Amino acid sequence: MTTDDLLIAFAEFLSAQDILTAAEDMKPFLQDWRHMFEGAAVCVLLPRSSQDVQRIVQICAEAAVAIVPQGGNTGLAGGATPDSSGGSVVLSLARMNRIIDIDRTGLTVTVEAGMVLDTLRAALAEVDRDLPISFAASGSATLGGILATNAGGANVLRSGMAGRMVLGLEVVLADGTIVSELSGLHKDNSGLNWMQLFVGSEGSLGIITRAVMRIETLRPHSATALLAVADADAALQLYARAVDRIGDRLAAFEIMSRDAIGRVERAFGLKCPIEAQRWLVLIETSSTSSYLEQDFAAFMEEAFESGLCADGAIAASQSQRQAFWRLRENLTEAEALSGRSVKHDISVPVSRMAEFLRRGETLLADVSRQTGATLNPHIFGHIGDGNLHYNILCDRPDAAGALNRAVHDLVVDCGGSITAEHGVGQYRLSEVYRLVSPARLALQERIKAALDPDMILNPGKLIRGDRP
Ligand code: FAD
Ligand code: MLT
Ligand code: ZN
User: Fold this and answer.
1) Considering the domain boundaries, does residue 368 fall inside one?
2) In this model, does residue 338 exceed pLDDT 90?
3) Angle subtended at Cα 367 by Cα 366 and Cα 372, rounded to the nearest 5 degrees
4) Is 401 in the same domain as 350?
5) Residues 213 and 230 both lie in one domain
6) Fewer beta carbons below 10 Å: N end or C end of the chain?
7) Which atom of ligand 2 is found nearest the CA of 391?
8) Is 76 a pocket residue for ligand 1 (Cβ < 6 Å)?
9) Cα-flanking dihedrals φ and ψ of residue 280, to 5°?
10) What does the pLDDT look like over 424-460, one tens digit per residue?
11) Claim to verify: residue 174 and residue 193 sit in the same structural domain
12) Taking the complete model, does pTM exceed 0.90, yes or no?
């Protein structure tokens, strides 16, 4: 099938504004958020319904044309960017962005995959409900992409990763079959837990078109503080105290290096309200009960008495709380504005976090000496769930590979994972095949061969498609 035949076939059911072919129109869809990957495509398609997606897949399957699903294009592993061959189709779910149902009592929300997270949370708040997933790209990230990457963010320590909130899913398979179970049952053991197969599959096993998510009652009471700590050990001791004293009302526990915050202050003209030592902790609690404030004040008093934090500030208003979060949520942008970075989205057992950071310092000095690169750490992350964004500004692109491998080897030696939440995409594909167990890789290859035998779904991402 020629390119023209393809476009004619798509035009039979998609309107002209939903088929992009002009270079200018396609450009934003062909580059990842970090501008690390740039690809080409026959066209960008913006279907309006699951049936449209089904017909696109059937046409591409028949023509053996690869499909790259895309949501908000905020992924940080290059998973939504096509390769440079120009032979694939980008299928954007952006225009399938409706809320289909909110069940306040059953605590479920049914959405189309292109639903943007912030838009959904605002609509839920109006009916006193919430979907507790929070991270800096939530203004563009979509529920389809969030499930396809099993996104994490700041609230994982309380609510778990996105995949834990899935109660229903509708997926279009590589042959165009639609599998749809959207009743939103909290309990259904009538077969394999098939939905979880697509959580974190990064568009390589099927295209998510709808989802049912478990929601909760909105927690109107929150308390937020910034604390200056000397090292990760102190931060982790504070975290242990917070778990004891505040329990499941602990909503976020973020660590940020002083250097990284300094880049945010300079890039965005913001001011950190406390004189940090090497590290800052942003702690947030939330609850449906107003008793929170006094419990939190007691926790903070203890924290200072213990000497674990040298300075701190409790947000006295919503606007001050938002100012604290602006420091945190601009870290990724400030990093991107500071030059090329080698991103490491790592997780290690919380008990080995301090060891990892200590050994990481020696590692950076060694790599710098061996390669001549200047390495500036820009480290922050969700330390409460053992997830650090161990991002290193590196002035020598030729040193990036050695740095990346050295950090990953240290992570594995500390019993960790080389990607905690951002996923594999194309950015980490070779490192995953170097470090993940052969048994797991082989199992993934068998699943890929079963569900996408012709490898039209997002080839070159997450699963290599090694065929015997
Ligand atoms: P896209 O980037 O469009 O796609 C991501 C992957 O999912 C690709 O492989 C794509 O092919 C696939 N995909 C997209 N939609 C579908 C679908 N409907 N069906 C099947 N496959 C699909 N992530 C975190 O986990 N935690 C964070 O704290 C975090 N912070 C971030 C901060 C910033 C500033 C930025 C830019 C990103 C951050 N991210 C974070 C990464 C990113 O926002 C998440 O991975 C998010 O889930 C991607 O959603 P998206 O809709 O943008 O997906
Ligand atoms: C975040 O937590 O802000 C992102 O996941 C971190 C990153 O950009 O590396
Ligand atoms: Zn993160």
Assistant:
1) yes
2) yes
3) 110
4) yes
5) no
6) C
7) 9
8) yes
9) -125, 145
10) 999 999 999 999 999 999 999 999 999 999 999 999 9
11) yes
12) yes
Ligand 2-lining residues (CB < 6 angstroms): 76, 135-136, 331-332, 343, 345, 389, 391
- Cβ–ligand 1 distance for 148 under 6 Å, the answer yes
- As a whole number, mean pLDDT of residues 204-221 equals 97
172-189, pLDDT tens digit by residue? 999 999 999 999 999 999
347 CB within 6 A, ligand 1? no
CA gap 75, 332 in Å, rounded: 12
Q: Residue 167: how many CB atoms within 10 A of its CB?
A: 23
Using DSSP bridges, classify how beta strands 89-92 and 43-45 pair: parallel, antiparallel or unpaired.
parallel
Ligand nearest to the CA of residue 149, numbered in listed order: 1
Give buried/exposed letters for 400-435 (b at 16+ CB in 10 A, else e). Answer: bebbbbbbbebbbebebbbbbbbbbbbbbbebbeeb
Smallest CA separation from ligand 1 atom 47, residue:
146
- Please, which residues have CB within 8 angstroms of residue 318's CB and are 6 or more apart in sequence? none
280, β-bridge pairs:
228, 256
Q: 153: Cβ below 6 Å to ligand 1? A: yes
In three-state secondary structure terms, 146 is helix
Percentage of the chain surpassing pLDDT 70? 100
Describe the strand order of the beta sheet including 108-112 as a list of residue ranges: 99-103, 108-112, 207-214, 166-172, 178-181
Q: Which of 37, 63, 94 is the endpoint of a domain?
A: 94
